[in-house]
Amino acid sequence: MKAISSMATRHALTDLFAAAAQAGLPRVRLESVGGVDAASRVADGELFDLVLLAAGALGRLADAGHVDAATVRPLMLSQTAAAVPDPSVVSAPLQEGIAFADAAQLRDALRSARRIGYSTGPSGTALLRMIEEWGLADELDGGLVQARSGIPVAASLSSGDVDLGFQQLSELVGQPGIRILGRLPDDCAIDTVFAGAVATASADSAGAAEVLAFLASDATVAIRRRHAFGVPA
Predict the structure, then answer these.
(1) pLDDT tens-digit series, residues 21-56
(2) Are 111 and 46 contained in the same domain?
(3) CATH at residue 134
(4) Does a structural domain hold residue 231?
(5) pLDDT confidence band for 79 (50 / 70 / 90)
(6) Are 42 and 89 part of one and the same domain?
(7) pLDDT above 90 covers what percent of the chain?
(8) Taking the complete model, does pTM exceed 0.70, yes or no?
């Protein structure tokens, strides 16, 4: 069985699929790429059994008939966090706190940063929208650096290309050369729900649905939380 996902969930999904196999369910070979690329490949007709992407992207694939809308299941809640370079860090630990006191403090941090890193995924899109709504787009123009598809913002931070970066917390945890400041405050939080669905081209839709049900079950909550994901309501 074959699945495709965005990079943000690859580590969690590797462990989740391993747990599913241990539970006697079909083994799944996972390929993780940039979310935009993953959605494009599914839309272009490449054969997969399971598709695991941000809920919005998966919804668009369902509307176009590329995944079975009836099988869509929310799996993981991801919160966007902020980070800065720190060469002394070998593996960035999970930071449960909040990076800034409120949206006003975040705006100050954006104005003070030399170069700001953001992702190609939903967190990056939401950050740009928020900057636009705050009227900072012109002021920050030239200082915004988008990571290449499939490349974590942490790589831009550790290399010194940016001095403030934003990405989903799960993508920052464990990365070298960065210090996680914490998630964004509630008044400007950027949360993403990742979901899964059975591809309409699946050769074993019943088996794929069984695996997906296991991933969304209470039996996997500890795995999801270990990878810095919450459980969607």
Answers:
(1) 999 999 999 999 988 899 999 999 999 999 999 999
(2) no
(3) 3.40.190.10
(4) no
(5) very high
(6) no
(7) 90
(8) yes
Same domain flag for 64 and 104: no
Q: pLDDT (tens digit, 9 = 90+) per residue, 66-75? A: 999 999 999 9
pLDDT at residue 136, rounded to an integer:
97
Amino acid at 229: F
Pair 203, 177 in one domain: no
Domain count, the chain: 2
Cβ-Cβ contacts under 8 Å for 49 (sequence gap 6 or more): 1, 2, 3, 28, 198, 199, 202, 203, 204, 205, 207, 208
Q: Domain range for residue 171?
A: 78-188
User: In this structure, how many other beta carbons lie within 10 angstroms of the beta carbon of residue 105?
Assistant: 14
Cα–Cα nearest to 71, from 62, 84, 82: 62
* 182 and 83 assigned to the same domain: yes
| Token reading at 115 | 């170069």
pLDDT value, residue 217: 97
Nearest CA to 76 among 20, 25, 127, 8?
Answer: 8
Domain shared by 6 and 42, yes or no: yes
User: In terms of domains, do 206 and 170 share one?
Assistant: no
pLDDT of residue 153 exceeding 80, the answer is yes
